[in-house]
Amino acid sequence: GGLALVCGAASVAAARALRDDGELAEVRHWVHDRQVRRSSLGATLQMVANGLVQVGVPAWLIVSDVLGAGGAAAILMGMTLTMAAMGPITGRRGMVSYPSRLRRGLVGCAVGLAGLAVAAATGPWWLAAPALVVLGLGAGSLLSPSLTAFSRTTAGESTIALSLFNLARLGSFGLGGLLGGAFVDAGEPGTAFLAVAIVCGLAAAQVGTDRALAADGGDEPEERAQEQTRAPEGAGGGTDDG
């Protein structure tokens, strides 16, 4: 209830700020930038999945009396260590287009979350470990490149836009954690994992469609130029060297 009140008040304030003479009038122009939309999509979905797993996986394992707190934390490290290891490993491959990285990252998140859903619903609990590794590969593909791709847009040059971008990322992490905790309380953690997996899969399919349209000339010249923007594959900070 408190969250709903805060969101309602924020929506009213944002609506006023987005008017032509408002403080956030530029936001309406930024959302028409395909690269802004894609980098924001990658960042938010990656953080939703991250928050969901950080809360949902250990809570599911502990509440179900499968593992203690230490064992659940060790299982969770499968994702964290994979994301950390991707920086130096994938960075050696050079540069890839962000749409390609976005599609691959979303597919990795979808497959990893689907594996967690199977483990939580019907499969053996240890299936969660390899599923978390796959999820780490997908999330690591989006963590740094999303921020880098956003920073190279016109919106990325604005402090306000960067603040909104980070607010969306952190808010998505909290939303994912809330979703994981709520479904563990309901005794259906697998449902939450599966729901987010479906969202990531649908988003990945849409990115593929957008790329096909761009190849057919569906993008404006400026958007086609942005499609060539390169982003590092590393999973570290949002710098050019990953």
How far apart, in Å, are the first and last alpha carbons? 40 Å
| Range of helix content | over 70%
General shape: globular
What is the β-strand count? 2
Main β-sheet: number of strands, strand sense, barrel status?
Answer: 2 strands, antiparallel
Strand neighbour order, sheet with most strands:
1-2
How much β-strand is present in the residues? Answer: under 5%
Radius of gyration: 19 Å
Unreliable residue runs: 212-242
Summed up, the helix count is 9
Q: Which structural class do the helices and strands define?
A: mainly alpha
Mean pLDDT: 78
* Run of helices and strands: HHHHEHHHHHE
Q: What does it look like?
A:
The protein is built from nine helices and two strands; from the N terminus they run ααααβαααααβ. The protein has 242 residues and is mainly α. Helix 3 (34-63) runs antiparallel to helix 6 (128-151) and helix 5 (98-121) runs antiparallel to helix 8. Mean pLDDT is 78; it is low at 212-242.
Topology, pairings included?
Layout: H1 2-17, H2 27-30, H3 34-63, H4 69-91, E1 95-97, H5 98-121, H6 128-151, H7 159-185, H8 189-215, H9 221-227, E2 230-232
Antiparallel strand pairs: 1-2
Helix pairs in contact: 3-4, 3-5, 3-6, 3-7, 3-8, 4-6, 5-6, 5-8, 7-8
Annotation keywords:
single chain; disordered C terminus; mainly alpha; two-stranded antiparallel ribbon; 242 residues; globular
Summarize this entry quickly:
This protein has 9 helices and 2 strands. It has helices at 2-17, 27-30, 34-63, 69-91, 98-121, 128-151, 159-185, 189-215, 221-227; strands at 95-97, 230-232.
